[in-house]
Design a protein that fits this description.
256 residues; alpha+beta; Creatine Amidinohydrolase; five-stranded antiparallel β-sheet; binds magnesium ion
């Protein structure tokens, strides 16, 4: 992948713009999460996201991305849907669903990219465990985002966190650098070998995004050509933050 070779180091003023973009993206996700309840359509969630983006005069890099052009500003992926679910007026949330929402924001020429998964009403302990493991894997990966470490340290930490708890990571979709483009280098898979890969430097900005499946690492794509589902229809979850490597602790860009 060509984008994976383009690694751009950001200066402090560029990081500040990315932080502002990330704040808006976090506001979108918090608003959408607040709307989770049975009967709400996934198109309603997209409309709410677009209203927040519009308020800030921003757009999502997801809109018209790829081929066929992605038709919405967020992705909404329910239960066995891992990522890239297309919002629809026909799809309603149900009690007990786990719902992943991914959003991007372009602000002053920089992109923020983050995602979360949460339940609708009461969810099973089995589903809650999956959410906890996926969120824990993201935290384990972020903790490795320090100068002197390598991308393989991040990948290995995520993989080990997930697999040691009996879950699976997809090998088909990965974390990525983020900046003026939604996808830049380095590519950061959710599996790998510690000590390998690109050396991390202050000013690198990376979207880490563990995608975790209960029953299998295998996925397939639905006939809509976007929605990625677990091959065995087991539950899945996805958490993502855009994070900057600094001289000290990793800086979360996509928080309020
Ligand atoms: Mg994303
Ligand atoms: Mg991403």
């Amino acid at each position: 992948m060509d984008w994976a070779r383009q690694v751009h180091i950001k200066n402090s003023s560029e990081i500040a713009v990315m932080r502002a973009a990330g704040k808006i993206n976090a506001e979108v996700l918090a608003t959408v999460k607040g709307l989770f309840k049975p009967g709400v359509t996934t198109a309603d969630l997209n409309a709410a996201a677009e209203e927040i983006l519009r308020k800030h005069s921003c757009v999502s890099p997801f809109k018209n991305y790829g081929y066929p052009p992605y038709p919405a500003s967020i992705t909404v992926s329910i239960n066995e849907e891992l990522v890239h679910g297309i919002p629809s007026t026909k799809r309603r949330l149900k009690e007990g669903d786990i719902v992943s929402v991914d959003c991007g924001t372009i602000y002053n020429g920089f992109v923020a990219d983050s995602a979360f998964t949460a339940g609708v009403g009461e969810i099973s302990t089995h589903a809650q465990k999956l959410l906890d493991v996926t969120q824990g894997a993201l935290a384990a990966g972020i903790d490795k985002m320090r100068p002197g470490n390598r991308t393989g340290d991040i990948s290995a930490a995520i993989q080990q966190y997930v697999e040691s708890r009996g879950y699976h990571v997809t090998k088909e979709y990965t974390g990525h650098g983020v900046g003026r483009q939604m996808h830049e280098g380095p590519q950061v898979p959710n599996y790998g070998t510690a000590g390998r890969g690109l050396l991390l430097r202050p000013g690198m900005t990376i979207a880490l995004e563990p995608m975790v499946l209960v029953g299998t690492a295998k996925t397939r794509v639905n006939p809509d050509q976007w929605t990625v589902v677990s091959a065995d229809q087991s539950l899945t979850a996805h958490f993502e933050h855009s994070v900057a490597v600094t001289e000290g602790d990793p800086l979360l860009l996509t928080v309020l």
